[in-house]
Amino acid sequence: MTWKQRMQKWLGHEGLDVDTKQQLQLLSEDEQLAEDAFYQDLVFGTGGMRGEIGPGTNRMNVYTVRKASKGIADYIESFGEQAMKRGVAIAFDSRRMSPEFAEEAARTFAAAGIRAYVYEAARTTPQLSFTVRELNAFMGIVITASHNPPEYNGYKVYGEDGAQLDLEAADQVIGFVSRVEDELAIENDEYDSSLLEILGEELDRAYIDQVLTVQETSVEPISVVFTPLHGASGATVRRVFDEAGYSGVNYVKEQMAPDGEFPTVESPNPEESSAFDLARKYGEEQTADLLIAIDPDGDRVGAAVWTGTQYELLTGNQTGGILLEYLLGQKKAKGELPEDGRIFKTIVTSGFGEAVARSYGVESEDVLTGFKFIGEKLRENDAQHEFTFLFGYEESYGYLIRDFARDKDAVQATLLLVEAAAFYKKQGKNLYGVLNELYERHGFYRELLVSVTKKGIEGAREITQLLDGLRTAPPQSIAGIAVEKIEDYDSRTRTLVDMGTSEAIVLPQSNVLKYFLSDGSWVCVRPSGTEPKVKYYFGVKAATQQESDEKLELLKESFLDIVANR
Asked: 219 with 245: CB under 8 angstroms?
């Protein structure tokens, strides 16, 4: 059907709720918006789906949520009665329509004869990951759009190990969802209420007990300002701090209650300095040592450190390096550093953490972008122990210390970060000073991410054309520095430019290109898997901060010029 036919089908549907029908009538007055709402089905990808809330097949609404849930229900049913009994654990964050979407999903599963465990109120993504494992559920779902603006929501899918689905399982689920032809025809009003179970304090207690095991040493005095940015983590983090024994935590009261409108922030994204505006005011009143902000679904954390004159926002790569230094240092001091210890990072994450790990004799392994690939390594290790997991992280502010959860866990990371800050404070240092000591020891690593939004049909075409063009005619040099090696994760080949030879990359297929330059710098191009964006990653290393900063700026400007002139 054309997009106009799809829209007319919705408008003519007898069971369409009144609010949706009114929104559709308004939408029909703007042809461009109407086309974008109906030109395709909302893409259900390897991690689930994410999009703007509103009417239409290309939007997040109760009908597209039912369709996704029906497809997953069919997938679960294909595994038999035992899988249906084990059921699905469901959590949701503080966003618009998150409770409603969670209820729609649960009712759809129950109507299909599948047990559904649903949290009573907003909970974090890592707690859902833990819950799947704790309940031995067959799958898990989180209703969240992470740090996106208020008009977005999403639907993330987890396997029985608590990690996001691996590529093989995701492809199977995508197939089942795509076979659900009519999202308007799915009924979930009639179901066995005994198949619905509400989750609350008992699972909260079990999760918090596990988080507390992250602690490495005794509690030391520290002054901290914390904000969940109107998200799902506030109550959980407060309990963790109280039970761990930290009394010097000041909470940003305006942002502690879950609120999907995110009224006090421009963006609920801890990567952005503006997200810390209120926390910074709190911190300056008491000269707090550390500011911490967690994103709405509680899986990513950002930190700002008092340097003596101002608060310096750490990048995800810098926080990862500091956490590794503290964690591995503590384990070494206690004689608990295993010989087979291993850390994991993604291909767009800095080599800084790898250098820190190497200094402790710990192996580092790269995976594709996305925490699911770290989860996949942990699942493989469950079956056949090859290493002891010590730490996993990605540059986009996601960290995992203990693998009772199998996705990035901002609650764990927050507790360890505060402990590290307190430990170093006792030695007369702050985390920014520790960071610079690490740079002096390992080299000044600098990284940068540039994201370019490409919305709608035309934007998707532009991203495809960009990647195709870079593959057809790859740059031979960037910023006057020769390209030494090209990794194409779509063809899974590594090309050694000078030698004119290629070798296989032993990683799953992904639409990503990475260029390695002769001076050790690198550039990576990757379309976002969850947003209409193309992302450009840049990384350099130099002997001084100034030299590193200058190299990074030159690398960025040169590559963006190459892209713009194609």
From this structure: yes
User: What would the pLDDT profile of 541-556 be if each residue is shown by its tens digit?
Assistant: 999 999 999 999 999 9
DSSP string, 352-388: HHHHHHHHTT-EEEEE-SSTHHHHHHHHHHHHS---E
Convert the pLDDT of each residue in 408-445 to its tens digit: 999 999 999 999 999 999 999 999 999 999 999 999 99
CATH 3.40.120.10 domain residues, the chain: 3-199, 206-442
Q: What is the mean pLDDT of residues 70-80?
A: 98
Band the pLDDT of 462: cuts 50, 70, 90.
confident
Calpha distance 102→89 (Å, rounded): 10
105 neighbors 99 (Cβ within 8 angstroms)? no
Mean pLDDT of 19-37: 92
Residues annotated as catalytic (active site), given as ranges: 146
Q: How many CB atoms lie within 10 A of CB 398?
A: 25
The CATH number of 444-565 is 3.30.310.50
- Residue 492 to residues 170, 346, 369, 511, Cα–Cα distance (Å): 20, 16, 14, 10
Give the list of residues 6+ apart from residue 235 with CB closer than 8 angstroms, or none. Answer: none
User: Residue 27 corresponds to which tokens in the numbers above?
Assistant: 């939408």
Nearest to 296 by CA among 103, 406, 152: 152
Tell the residue number behind the tokens 């093989």, with chain if given.
168
Confidence of residue 530 (pLDDT cuts 50, 70, 90): low
- How high is the pLDDT of residue 241? 98
Instruction: Specify the domain boundaries for CATH 3.30.310.50 within the chain.
Output: 444-565
- Which residues touch 172 (CB under 8 Å, ≥6 apart)? 75
CATH topology of domain 3-199: Alpha-D-Glucose-1,6-Bisphosphate; Chain A, domain 3 (3.40.120)
